[in-house]
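Quarterly update from the structural biology core.
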Amino acid sequence: MAAKAIMIQGTMSNAGKSLLTGGLLRVMKQDGYRVAPFKSQNMALNSFITEEGLEMGRAQVMQAEAAGIKPSVRMNPILLKPTNDTGSQVIVNGEVRGNMPAREYFRYKKELIPDIMEAYRSLEEEYDILVLEGAGSPAEINLKTDDIVNMGMAKLAKAPVLLAGDIDRGGVFAQLVGTVELLTPEERAMVKGTVINKFRGDRTILEPGIQMLEERLRIPTVGVIPYLQVDIDDEDSLTERFGRKETGGFLDIVALRIPRISNFTDFRPLEAADGVNFRYVTSAGQLGNPDLILIPGTKNTMEDLLWLRQNGLEAAVRKAAASGTLVMGICGGYQMLGETLSDPYGVEAGGKIRGMGLLPMDTVFEKEKTRTQTEGRFLEISGAFSGLSGAALKGYEIHMGISVLKEGAEPLTGLSPSGTVDGAFAGNVCGTYVHGVFDEEETLRALLEILCGRKGLSTEAVRTFDMAAYKERQYDLLADAIRRNMDMEAVYRILEEGI
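Predicted structure, tokenized:
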């Protein structure tokens, strides 16, 4: 029997669709259903590599975790990774199809419907319920032609729609009414409920507005979800994590917020660790005197390195490294630490530029992307990062470049199936291609103990945690909030009735 489906759409980007989808999946899992997420097209730089070596968006990985299942690329058959303001790398069922300008992709996307439906039908055969997520708003008039992610996908899946609005930004009633009014009569009939999301305050004050909304739209409001304080993976540049200005931690860790930052979820365990003041910085003046500088992954290593060079952050990082501050790069950030970056095939900007010169190595961008999960341990390390020696390491690699070490640099790890070096260290600088490097509690503790030791602090001050168990608690908290604030009887009724 084919799975039943329901879809979460939003009045705008960042209305909370991903979180609501994850919450519904967790509730339904708790209620005994086999459930899975599905988003036909996702635009994100925050991606993940499955066991099969295929690439998908992190939001659907989070939702799969909430559903208690392994992530599958079928849950996100189309992934767009922006390469600049007008174009993206197009990934179909986990494999790169190529780079396309926005206009070209707009014409091409309807050809992807068979790929989308093959993935959807495959999931439909395995699960009881599929919870679909839209993208942006279904009322973007310029994007409605051949839509494959909002109402177009809802029609293909015959999925009733719950429309979520963001009250925290203000104007939620105008958002919801305006969105519904801009839909065609056929699309309007598919909207079976509205959800007011990110509410702060006394709900009784909201009731007259809800009554008017229901009278105007003749669609029930099935939930008023509070502004949730749960620690769950965010989407790309819209995340509120980038605005963190915490103080009071005994360790100060900064990450450079480069323009095309990707996989910033690598840092989530550090953000959540007790005693850590974790900050994102965009200028040399914000850097201060941190205990550790992190350079994250990026979709365009060369252009983001030039950005760091132009705004003075590169010079500030080099100065800090020279004074003994620990510096660590991940993926694109690791590549930046080397001496040269070459792009003979025009994978990024083309040509050759100098790196930061903090690790003796050269990187060449190849035509083929490395996509693999990795597991093992750090090698024997000398110097400032010696405390990582032998620590457990598990994650995934996703990059276009190959880095070759030179005299003065030593391998940090040796996990790649091809035998190539996927990390290096030299003194107080190190880097790795492995995403999720801090998810293993053993590695997280080792790093924090290194930082405490350098400040003369007792290692008893370090309190780490099991990241997997921590995530499970957050998903349960999310489900509790959904149960308290959403009419699940109405949601199940809508699911049963369909469209």
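The longest strand covers residues 361-377.
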